[in-house]
Amino acid sequence: MTSTIDPKEVLKFSSLSEKWWDEDGEFKLLHDITPIRMSYFKEKITEHFNLDPKSLTPFEKISIIDVGCGGGLVSQPMAKLGASVTAIDASLENIEAALNHNKNNVDYRHATIEEISKNSKKYDCVLAIEIVEHVANLDQFIKSCAQVVAPGGMIIISTLNQTIKSYLKAIIAAEYILRWVPSDTHDWQKFIKPSNLENHLRDNNMKITELKGLNYNLLSRNWYLLDQIDTNYIAICKQV
Predict the structure, then answer these.
(1) Which of 12, 176, 185, 197 is least crowded, fewest Cβ atoms below 10 Å from its Cβ?
(2) Where is S-adenosyl-L-methionine bound in this sequence (predicted)?
């Protein structure tokens, strides 16, 4: 089986692992966008599984695997909503950072998705948040993610579109002008057009049912969702 791991990417994030929970540090951008993303994730998961949106723990009967979990910025809020969460990362340092912050209610594992796919366990929801643009083999990654989706389940993918606008905003502006993320965090050549992602999903009996973009209002200093996806996008994916 071809590995999805890019050693350079693992090393890059391992070197920053102590910064995951510094809200003013290298991962400030991820902390800033977590509330709006979590609200959207909650809405879509609740809708898909016909759960009670008014419940404080609507995901009590839902199993989730967070692939490329980093320091647990999404895993932990999901667990607080009641989900049974397994969180995996190829970086041992990232897993240690997540465990050091809060080990309660999340099953953290130093593992890859292709390793997990060899097991019989399936998950209601697979999260691939800001990870597909860092993998070495997208085809194998999507295949492995699809293999662990339980019948009637879903995949949520958040990534960057491969456009001139994404190069200017996500790399030139975010990395070198505004310094929102460390320089060389992203490689534009690995950004993924939705049509390309759709092809990989279709090959694995999955399809995109909704796309949303995320944008920043410089005046209000707030993040918001929109239908425009030429910089980044969240893909809600369901089984065919």
Answers:
(1) 176
(2) 37, 68, 89, 129
